Amino acid sequence: TAGVVAALLAAAGCTAALVAWGRPGLVSVGGTPRTAAGGLGRFGGSWLWEVDAAAGSNRSASRGVGGAGQQPAELQSFYVFRAQSDRKYPLENVNVGDLPGVLWYLHHEVVSMCPRKFGITRIMRWKLTVKKGEMIGFVAFDRGACTVPNCAALWQQKGYAVGCQELRYVGMPGHWYSLPGKCPNSTVGEKTPGCRADFPGGACLSAAALSSGSGHCTYFAEPAGEVAIDELTGIDNYSHFCAEGNLEYNWASDSGIGMSFWDGFQN
């Protein structure tokens, strides 16, 4: 149940073992179950790979074959989600979240304007594989560039590790993650070939490359489905919805105009 999930997440946090824990056919949004026949169940299969409080119970851990004299890295895989426009680009130099994390972002920053912030249209799901126990603090990215102080020093000291930060959404613990990629200190239009070569980032070309335990790469991301926000929330024609003066969520009234899906930020 959603209560059990929340309890485990609360006990775990960013430093706990991340494991694959399938809940076939069930998605909980604000405590409301949705079956695989619709809504976020469209992602299919195991709805979310969550955080388990029991360190060392990593059922998704795997070991690959490393190079000569190189100890293979132990890996862990879990789902992350990203709210995004229809544009296509690699999952590098961006922030993602677990399900509570991405819904908090949509509710807090995106659906309170029409059209939505950044032209966001969908929630994308990715299977993220990382080296076990090698996460660092969360790093904010904006337009493909790290925006926290002393980014260059951070990469030099910690490598291009995945970052993690905890938050809460409608009483459920959530997480945001940061994924440093090529030339992580420069915005999208300023990433020169030289910068990409000098600062290769943490994205791996394969899970095998990650498992080898060598090199700069720290994570491997694979697409794992998506759902349109309009389909999730029941909007038939988004352009008409905005043109008629509707709004998915209004902070002043804590409710939508012309729809009720996002009513009650703390509900």
Explain what you see.
Helices cover 20% and strands 27% of the residues. With 267 residues, the chain is α+β, with helices and mostly antiparallel strands.
Distance between the termini: 17 Å
- State the helicity in percent bands: 10-25%
Kindly report the average pLDDT value. 78
Major sheet characteristics: 4 strands, antiparallel
Helical segment tally? 7
Q: Give the helices and strands as they follow along the chain.
A: HEEEEEHEEEEHEEHHEHHEE
Strand order of the largest sheet: 3-4-6-12
Q: Roughly what fraction of the amino acids lie in strands?
A: 25-35%
Report Rg.
19 Å
Apparent shape: elongated
| Tally of DSSP β-strands | 14
Given the helix and strand composition, which structural class is it?
A: alpha+beta
Summarize it.
With 267 residues, the chain is of the alpha+beta class. The chain has helices at residues 2-12, 99-110, 151-158, 193-198, 207-211, 229-233, 238-243, and strands at residues 26-29, 32-35, 62-63, 74-84, 94-97, 122-131, 136-137, 141-142, 145-146, 163-169, 172-179, 219-228, 247-250, 255-257.
Throw out a few tags for this protein.
27% strand, alpha+beta, disordered N terminus, elongated, 267 residues, four-stranded mixed beta sheet
Secondary-structure topology with pairs:
Elements: H1 2-12, E1 26-29, E2 32-35, E3 62-63, E4 74-84, E5 94-97, H2 99-110, E6 122-131, E7 136-137, E8 141-142, E9 145-146, H3 151-158, E10 163-169, E11 172-179, H4 193-198, H5 207-211, E12 219-228, H6 229-233, H7 238-243, E13 247-250, E14 255-257
Parallel strand pairs: 7-10
Antiparallel strand pairs: 1-2, 3-4, 4-6, 5-11, 6-12, 8-9, 10-11, 13-14
